[in-house]
Amino acid sequence: MSKRRKRISEVAPKATPRLSGTARLLSEIPTDRLDLHGLSAREAEVRVRNFLERHVRSSQGRVVHIITGKGTHSDGPAVLPGLVNGLLCGEFRQNVAEYAGLVGGGAIAVRIEG
Known about the structure:
The protein is of the alpha+beta class. It has one domain (19-112): Ribosomal Protein S8, Chain: A, domain 1, CATH 3.30.1370.110. The chain is built from four helices and four strands; from the N terminus they run H-H-E-H-E-H-E-E. The chain has helices at 3-11, 21-27, 41-58, 80-89; strands spanning 32-35, 63-67, 96-101, 107-112. Strands 1-2-4-3 form a four-stranded mixed β-sheet, sandwiched between helices. The chain is globular.
């Protein structure tokens, strides 16, 4: 490499890396969020269904967060994360573009199809 090229590459600003995929999903500010703390599995299922149905109609392409908690105050293993995952990849599969757990656990970021 010539001295001139080396100097140019040292002073040229580096391009900021673009986020894509899961990193982009997790970095977006959610349009809305649903907190399921303290709810039974049955109550949570009803709330998640209503929440997703409402956002399927009004939030195409946008991100929402569903806060399940980690289950640390449950008597057994955490139930709500599995319940929400089941709905996202089952009944609402056609309406969800992508989803991923938030760093630290206890919440799921969901991009509504659109």
